[in-house]
Write a structure and sequence with these properties.
heterodimer, A: 178 residues, alpha+beta, five-stranded mixed beta sheet, 6 helices, 5 strands, 12% strand, elongated, B: 750 residues, seven-stranded mixed beta sheet, six-stranded mixed beta sheet, 27% helix
Chain lengths: 178, 750
């Protein structure tokens, strides 16, 4: 029977879409992706080299410094310390995913602009992710709560980031009431 | 079509018509002014517009920023200087980084936009001198273009917010006028610049022009750029910059799927002075970063040390201390005013102290990297460099290409601090790109970046002050020992001190008998320009010492400082210019008033102050600290600056607050130590920039309004921060920290 059909092209209606390559399925900024490469590849290099989502920066090999933070299921996580193998069915949010569907800035992004909480800007995506994680856990963070952020900044933006977080917290409370 | 107007002897303002009715105004060199306009200059490719101002038919104004943006806000400020002069509507201005402007002058480079350098504190003063005329010319042309359409003579027209307006209120937008403006013949004389009361943007606050792109992750640093199918190279450098490879087994690395090549990089001993020699290294080139990193891990490497293999920072510090305490003649006597020895005989009081400061790394957030596409007739680089002209020189030497065959693009940079004035990483990238047939990205990992820097040398200062009976300092003797950052850079040996001490630094010229000696240390450890050099180390030592004089006199340090500064007067500076003592005293008074200095003696908290000046700008800090057990808290930090005219108050405030925190972070924690020639810090854990909790919660910034030409503020707020902190720590803990970093020494002495 197989031989009878061998010479004939497959009819389009006969094709059943089944996955042909095993991989790790995950969502990044709401989009579905399947990683079919090395499961040990850190998320950072998947984002940067494979997807060219370059907003998440390289901080160092040990995940210290906070420049490579992303949200994994809502929690701030070092992208270089997270191999793809740990991300099956996880939801990842990078700095590119902070705007809403219409492209409006998140109140935290707006607060960073309003407070000029930017130096060279390289560490800014990491600050945004860590701050968002904090605000998700704590709608009204105190100075001591903000002190706990893991990020480093050589340009010295810390004081203005602190103001931006407070401004965003106030804006988000206002937004929740409206 | 194009026409030109002379700006200086060799440089011209040039005007031409772009595609779709655009007006383009730029500065070109004398030679280029007569040459036909390159076709790509007229196109719509933004990277090729290569000029300072372009007004498009839709009213968009594109302004090119010639100096690399390292995070100091220079792109925004340069653009606002031009936009103000041409009365553009900032809402419709887009700022773009200009690449290197270079053309071929019989095989030699000719720089199209003048000096292009970032993060060295002189972008704003240079722009103030020459960029305003580009904006003024654009405004003049647009007004002329409106004359026939509005039927009103030019002197009755005015420009405002991107439009030319007639006395009866009719307006023509710049976009409508651009095409006609591009055809107008240039005026014969110079165009008058705006007078200050007509400024609309200068002196008004503006956020960073890139802010929205940065917070949405859209800003592309060189590390985020791609040239199509690009290979990635990572390096394993020799631990000793003067060492060599003793053994390499790359078979395991080459066995990894995706690893393309393993290449040994050797230093070229014939590098011309001024260009840095690369350290020996082995590069792994692979299809992506992850594979390259695995390849590097699989290398079996043996390195042999060179002369630096026996060096240590501890031994250098001992050597420096011994030198300044000995009777040895200095390497250079930098300044010798009056007669120190005679003054000593009138001494009513002597104060002496020795201060030691560590080696430092640059620790930029974005590590060294360079993207290169190379073929027989062109080299295109996308690279974070503070000096694209220096980068060009390196590329030219290694490729032999003609000047205009080398295209250097400089996107926003993740911090510079002087590290990117050296181009070892550019040389490495070009050498590696020659070995492959695809574009290549060189990427330094954090450990390579921290362990293969051009460091700031550690230094030891010794001071002796002689006071007469009325508490005036009549003699000041200072001895500094350090390894010059200029060694091996083609600088004459009698000028090696100039990276280590300033001949004009406070209080030189304030005291009749003043001597400054420098002792050069010999070291093979690599050194280079560093943010705030030489002010950072000297301000810490000098301003700590003034505080010690105050303590010795049992008086308020504010009184001691003001007595030392003296009456309002101008003190001439060697090399030109003068220090205005009234402006220096003023910033000091502003910070002490703000912090509530009158409580300094009675508060349970500690108060410290310090002031400094450089390059026509003045700065002071007042800091309040508290201590509970071993926990030091910086309660308040106040900084006042006087930079003359302020271009962007918001940018200046950010820069001042940022530099203050950077200086405090450095003072609290940071030191590079070297043992057996090897740098011991390779991660953020070993080289811990201050955490949020260690830093003050705000920096209160006071800006003195000024009318004079603007001075640079890139690192102005760094020098006085650390001594103000150390002086405050002394008041709260009675511990005088004379050896940095502060926290380590404080905990040792408590």
């Amino acid at each position: 029977m197989a031989q009878d059909h061998a010479a004939l092209p497959t009819k389009p209606t006969d094709i059943t879409p089944t996955p042909v390559r095993a991989g790790i399925d995950l969502q990044i900024n709401g989009e579905h992706y399947r990683h079919t490469g090395d499961p040990a590849m850190p998320l950072l290099w998947y984002l940067r080299d494979v997807l060219r989502l370059d907003g998440t920066k390289y901080s160092g090999e040990h995940g210290v410094g906070g420049m490579d933070l992303v949200l994994v299921n809502g929690k701030a996580t070092s992208a270089i310390n997270t191999p793809m193998s740990k991300l099956a069915d996880k939801q990842v949010t990078t700095v590119e995913g902070l705007v809403d569907a219409k492209g409006h800035l998140h109140p935290l992004q707006q607060a960073f602009i309003d407070e000029d909480a930017i130096g060279c800007g390289y560490c800014t995506p990491g600050w945004l992710i860590a701050s968002l994680d904090l605000l998700n856990r704590n709608k009204d963070p105190s100075d001591n709560d903000i002190d706990g952020l893991p990020n480093l900044c050589r340009c010295g933006c810390q004081a203005r980031v602190r103001q931006a977080i407070k401004r965003a917290a106030a804006a988000m409370k206002q937004g929740a009431k409206a | 079509m194009s026409n030109t107007m002379q700006l200086s002897r060799r440089r011209f303002l040039q005007v031409m018509a772009g595609a779709a009715g655009a007006l383009i105004v730029g500065i070109r060199s004398a030679r280029a002014a007569n040459a036909p306009v390159p076709p790509d200059m007229l196109g719509d490719a933004l990277y090729d517009f290569g000029m300072f101002v372009r007004v498009d038919a839709d009213g968009t104004v594109l302004i090119g920023s010639r100096d690399p943006e390292t995070g100091t806000g220079v792109a925004t400020s340069l653009a606002r200087i031009i936009a103000d002069e041409m009365d553009a509507d900032w809402q419709h201005v887009r700022v773009l980084p200009l690449g290197l402007g270079v053309e071929n002058d019989n095989g030699k480079p000719r720089w199209l936009y003048g000096q292009q350098v970032g993060g060295t504190g002189n972008s704003i003063p240079r722009a103030w001198r020459d960029l305003r005329s580009a904006g003024a010319l654009a405004r003049w042309l647009l007004i002329q273009a409106a004359v026939p359409q509005l039927g009103v003579p030019p002197e009755k027209l005015r420009a405002e917010l991107g439009a030319v307006i007639s006395p009866d209120g009719r307006r023509l937008g710049y976009g409508q006028l651009a095409a006609a403006a591009a055809k107008i013949a240039l005026p014969h004389g110079a165009i008058a610049l705006k007078t200050p009361e007509r400024y609309t943007l200068i002196g008004k606050p503006a956020g960073d022009a890139d802010a929205r792109a940065i917070v949405t992750g859209q800003t592309e640093y060189a590390l985020d750029k791609h040239f199509g199918d690009t290979l990635v190279a990572v390096l394993a450098h020799c631990p000793w910059p003067d060492g060599q490879l003793a053994g390499l087994d790359s078979s395991a690395a080459l066995g990894i799927k995706g690893v393309v090549k393993v290449i040994e990089l050797k230093p070229d001993p014939h590098v011309p002075p001024g260009q840095t020699v690369i350290a020996p290294a082995v590069a792994v080139i692979a299809e992506n970063t992850w594979v390259a990193l695995q390849g590097r891990k699989a290398l079996k490497l043996q390195w042999k040390p060179g002369a630096s293999g026996s060096e240590s920072t501890a031994a250098l510090e001992q050597q420096a201390t011994a030198l300044i305490n000995s009777d040895a003649a200095p390497t250079t006597r930098i300044r010798d005013d009056g007669d120190i020895d005679k003054a000593k005989r009138k001494a009513a009081r002597r104060v002496e102290a020795v201060y030691s400061q560590p080696w430092l790394a640059h620790a930029t957030s974005e590590p060294m990297n360079c993207l290169v596409r190379l073929d027989k007739t062109s080299a295109t680089l996308c690279v974070p460099t503070q000096s694209p002209q220096q980068a060009w020189t390196v590329v030219q030497r290694l490729t032999g290409l003609a000047p205009d065959q080398i295209d250097i693009q400089v996107p926003r940079i993740g911090g510079g601090y002087g590290r990117r004035l050296d181009h070892d990483y550019v040389a490495e990238a070009v050498l590696l790109a020659k070995e492959v047939d695809k574009p290549l990205r060189l990427f330094w990992t954090r450990d390579e970046d921290l362990t293969h820097d051009y460091y700031r040398s550690g230094c030891v200062h010794k001071f002796q002050a002689i006071l007469e009976a009325k508490r005036h300092v009549i003699a000041w003797n200072q001895r500094v020992a350090s390894a010059s950052a200029l060694t091996g850079r083609g600088v004459p040996s009698d000028h090696l001190w100039s990276s280590e001490v300033s001949v004009n630094q406070f209080p030189a010229g304030f005291i009749p008998n003043y001597r400054s000696d420098w002792f050069g240390l010999s070291s093979s450890l690599p050194r280079g320009p560093h943010r705030g050099m030489p002010h950072l180390t000297n301000a810490f030592a000098v301003c700590s010492f003034v505080d010690e004089i105050a303590h010795s006199l049992k008086e308020d340090p504010l009184v001691t400082n003001l007595r030392l500064i003296g009456e309002p007067r101008l003190i001439p500076q060697q090399g030109g210019g003068a220090v205005d003592t009234a402006r220096l005293a003023n910033v000091l008074k502003l910070v002490t008033d703000r912090i509530g200095w009158k409580d300094w003696l009675h508060s349970v908290n500690g108060f410290g102050l310090a002031c400094w000046y450089m390059d026509g700008a003045y700065v002071a800090h007042a800091i309040e600290v508290s201590m509970q057990g071993e926990k030091l808290t910086i309660e308040r930090a106040v900084c006042a600056v006087d930079v003359g005219r302020v271009i962007n108050p918001m940018g200046l405030e950010g820069q001042v607050a940022g530099a203050t925190l950077d200086a405090l972070s450095t003072a609290l924690n940071l030191a590079i130590t070297v043992k057996d020639g090897k740098v011991q810090q390779s991660t953020w854990k070993d080289y811990p920039l201050a955490s949020m909790a260690q830093l003050p919660r705000t920096v209160e910034v006071i800006t003195v309004p000024g009318e004079g030409d603007p001075a640079g503020a890139s690192f102005l707020a760094m020098p006085s921060a650390a001594p103000a902190l150390a002086n405050a720590v002394f008041r709260v803990s009675a511990v005088r920290v004379r050896r940095m970093p502060l926290m380590k020494e404080l905990l040792r002495l408590l």
